[in-house]
Design a protein that fits this description.
- The chain is of the alpha+beta class.
- 27% of the residues lie in helices and 31% in strands.
- It is globular, with a radius of gyration of 19 Å.
Length: 181
Amino acid sequence: MKLAIIFGILLIIIGGCYVQQELPESKISGTQDLVLTEQDLQELGMTAESECQTEEQTSYDLSDVEYTFCSYTIDSLIDTKVIIELKKFSNYESLNDSYLYDSSHLFGAKGLISENTFGEQSRFRVNSKDDYEAEFNDPNIYYYHLWITKYLYLIHITSSGRSEEAKGYIIKIGQQILSKF
């Protein structure tokens, strides 16, 4: 009897700690719904380099992932490119594993700008000398990365260019995509 009570209490504790974010079905049905529109691009001062590409992929654990890739330039910053990767996972375990690996693998601690500012799982960073193989990077180029998870989605925004001002653009892009939820 004691074992059954202890087991029941453990189930209640574990169940109470597990919170799953439910996505309203009517708002976002896939990664294409998160792609920046022409109006978004005008507000952000950006230009699309090409059409966004969407495909189905399989993650390392063989779960399905919807993947959209978009490429942009920031109009007011010379030679500054922005890549946005949008992924929709079929389960939270794959999403969390991908976020943890992608947002920390090969990166040193010195480039971390913020953590959890854009939600419970988000990281914003810039390249630094303690990144893996940083010695091969041009020291005059800034690479900003912003990872955000929301529901079953992983948003990764990356910029490369000679201007530190790209930092503000990456923040605005992240906020614009989050506003779509």
